[in-house]
Amino acid sequence: MATYKGIQGYSVQKLSSDPTASESVGQLWYNSAAGKFKISVAGAGAWASGGALTTGRNYPQAARNSTQTAGLAFGGYNSGGRDETETYNGTAWSEVNDLNTGRAGPGGAGTQTAALCSTGTPYSPSSNTRTSVVESYNGTSWAEVNNVTTAVAWMNSFGTNTAAMLVGGDTGGAVTTVNSQTWNGTSWAEGNNLPGGVLGNTGTGSTAAGLNLGAEASPYRACQTYDGTSWTEVNNTNSQHGYASCFGTQASAVVAGSNSPGTTAVSESWDGTSWTETADMATARYGTAAFGLGSAGVVTGGAATLTTTEEWTNPVYAIKTVTVS
């Protein structure tokens, strides 16, 4: 009878316990304690439940460059513009010092210890009002810095505490804008315009490599990339994503949720060239805060004043028992 070594040219390693799944993908071994052959595989991306926000809200924002285990969410809407700020440790949310100006649908950038909250709507006396106020977070408290050039809400935002962008958005009364605004750590300046005006858009990236997509109104599925100077149309998303969540980089991103047609849980992944539908979120939602990488991201809050959080992991590693017959 042929042996595995004779067929493959190498022997199966015998181990008393299983190795780490992520570090042994594609490897076959014999677990002597279990008396079983095992193999590690990398499966498709999946969503899992995370910790609940302390305060449920719609249209919160996040420090977009945060990681799955060190996040920051702030603002939002729940009977008016909210000023609550919460940190995430990969398991639970904790309240920290509030924003000075409560608001919904602001821009967000940076990390858990160096964040930026820009413009948005105070939602009082109406959702058509806008604030120009920008605040910087140092890991402990918020402080006002220089105002935006154009006050907007429900726009795409990304970058760091010292190099951020706001893209598109609603200046009030569902008036869209083509503007890009850039932050250099001190002040805001107008950047090159989008091909067309949008609101309810989302995206991710950096001021040198940005991604913009989604909208409340036509063009619903359009997507553009930014090279630090200008915007270029690239492949559309497969589904509509209005007021959706996006996290990752220009080369690897995930977009999830939408408010049209109807509230959805549809998710798609971006590989730098095209969009592919992935596993849906457990809860249909829009108007959420999102942060992280295309391989490990977080979506939290959203319609209607949700507290739930979902974590995206891709790939999902697992150890399988090999059946021998």
Task: Describe, in short, the structure shown.
With 325 residues, the protein is mostly beta strands.
- CATH architecture label name of the largest domain: 6 Propeller
Total number of distinct structural domains: 2
Mean pLDDT metric? 94
| CATH homologous superfamily placement of the largest domain | Kelch-type beta propeller
**Total number of helices:** 1
Distance between the termini: 14 Å
Q: Rounded to an integer, what's the Rg over CA atoms?
A: 22 Å
Main CATH class of the largest domain:
Mainly Beta
CATH fold-level assignment of the largest domain: Neuraminidase
SSE order: HEEEEEEEEEEEEEEEEEEEEEEEEEEEE
Secondary structure: number of strands: 28
Low-pLDDT runs of 5+ residues are none
- Estimate percent helicity: under 10%
Shape: globular
Strand content: 35-45%
Assembly state of the chains shown: single chain
Give the spatial strand order of the biggest sheet: 1-2-3-28
